[in-house]
Fold this protein.
Amino acid sequence: MHLGMHSLDEYLHSKKVAGYVEDSIYEAALTLRHFERLIGRCSSKQITQNAVDKFILERGKEIIRSTLNKDIRNLRAFVRWGRKNRYVNGEIEFKELKEDEKPVKSLSNTQIKKLLSTAKRHKTMWMRILLALGTGLRLRDIEPWRISDIDFENSYVTTRSKKTRKSMGSRPVPVPIMAELKKYVSGLDAKQEKIFNDNFSRYRWTQIRRKHKLEDFTFHDLRKTFGSVLAQRGVSTAVIQKLLEHSSPDLTNKVYTNVDPVLRHAVDQIPASDWL
């Protein structure tokens, strides 16, 4: 990468020091490599509005809008950092592209029951799915759970988000799910510290969801199902935002409540039968 090797290394190091996770740092470096590939080698001071506009145009031919917007955000962050540290000159305008809002995938109660029923023969997979549905946590935040993090008496668990680097000391877990977790833990080896001693099997997850014709459904969509179920039951955006650890209620509203069952539930509140 030639975007000023010193400035690039310093930028990536600054993100690491600021607590960004490895995935975020990797994505930033990848965006800048694509910039060099499409625009050509240049120093940080040679990044201009024309170069940025050309990158967005050319990169847009290769990827979907949501991915392109990630590249735009990564490049904008680098340019802002570069201007602050005098590696970049001049004002550069960045505009993200408008994306079509599509209803988020969310499981119905019937689908949830079928998915759990199929997964039950694989104990650790079943427990992972149940915890994702009951807490809304990302897979990477469920995997590190230790038995010592769990307060079985009060149905709480201490969690740490790898994405936000934030901790929640008393995250509530539904009592029925905590009861199942307690039974699961009671069957583990007494010396086992983590609740999972195996790796998440993507192959097994694929087999389970394909059985119910959920080919495009990801494990992360269990988190969206969590948000959807809460919204359907009238839980406020502020509370859902807190549980999902979003920095803004806009994300909660835009993504996690933009789900067909939520929209349908809202429309069903209209007393149309009374009108007719």
